[in-house]
Write a structure and sequence with these properties.
Layout lengths: L2 E8 L8 H5 L3 H19 L5 E7 L4 H8 L4 E4 L5 H14 L4 E6 L7 H10 L5 E5 L5 E6 L17 H11 L4 E3 L9 H16 L7 H11 L2
Parallel strand pairs: 1-2, 1-4, 2-3, 5-7
Antiparallel strand pairs: 4-6, 5-6
Helix pairs in contact: 2-8
């Protein structure tokens, strides 16, 4: 298909994922959260009429991820390097393979509605780049209509200036930018608490959050 969605994910291994959350809980708990986020995210995006690629790390975990997704997703190992190198390799490879629009997300925003991802693809009918601004100063989604190397070079990854720096690159290249509604990643204990409040409010309003594994962990955490 000409529209490609890449989901960047790490293998849930205690001590190697969600390290900021682990610092305020435990590596084992953070690993369970990581796995729940990943599985719920994969379920949520299956309804999208796009080509789905799970971009995984580490490379030797291919069998693990194939067991998770079966034939519902293609698999691609992440390139070696910082986030910019990994994103650039994915986007460049997809466009070389014939994609007309490419969108990437992570597995750190389990409550992100699939409708926002669909909106990203729709925006690429008129824009060159689409960004989903995250509340921590980064972005939770990046989409392009062609490969733009400048988006991935010399960006202060993991700092609150990522979104601002990326927007400057887009404007300097005179590209048309579309912005999506702000959303949030869950990386810290404070983020986890915000997710808990968000999900509780949805349940109170009679809205199914569509996060069965994450909801089970939130309820287990609240019962402690």
């Amino acid at each position: 298909m000409e529209r490609t969605l890449g989901i960047f994910a790490k293998q849930p291994l205690a001590g190697r994922v969600k390290t900021r959350l682990a610092a305020d809980s435990s590596p084992e708990w953070a690993c369970r959260v990581c796995e729940a986020f990943l599985l719920d995210t994969l379920d949520r995006v299956r309804s999208l009429a796009v080509r789905r690629v799970l971009v995984f790390d580490p490379a030797e975990a291919q069998a693990f991820f194939r067991g998770l997704v079966g034939d519902h997703f293609e698999l691609e190992a992440q390139a070696v390097g910082d986030l910019g190198v990994r994103l650039a390799a994915f986007f460049q490879g997809q466009f070389r393979g014939g994609a007309r629009s490419v969108v990437s997300i992570g597995a750190d925003s389990p409550s992100l509605p699939p409708e926002i991802i669909a909106q990203a693809f729709a925006e690429l009918a008129r824009a060159d780049v689409v960004l989903g601004p995250a509340m921590d100063g980064g972005y939770y989604l990046l989409g392009c209509r062609r490969f733009v190397a400048e988006l991935f070079q010399d960006i202060p990854w993991s700092l609150p200036e990522v979104f601002e720096a990326t927007c400057r690159r887009i404007h300097a290249a005179q590209l048309r930018l579309a912005l999506l509604p702000p959303w949030y990643d869950v990386d810290t204990l404070a983020d986890w608490q915000m997710l808990r409040g968000h999900v509780a409010a949805m349940l109170s309003a009679g809205i199914d959050p569509r996060l069965p594994r994450t909801l089970a962990l939130l309820q287990a955490d609240a019962a402690k």
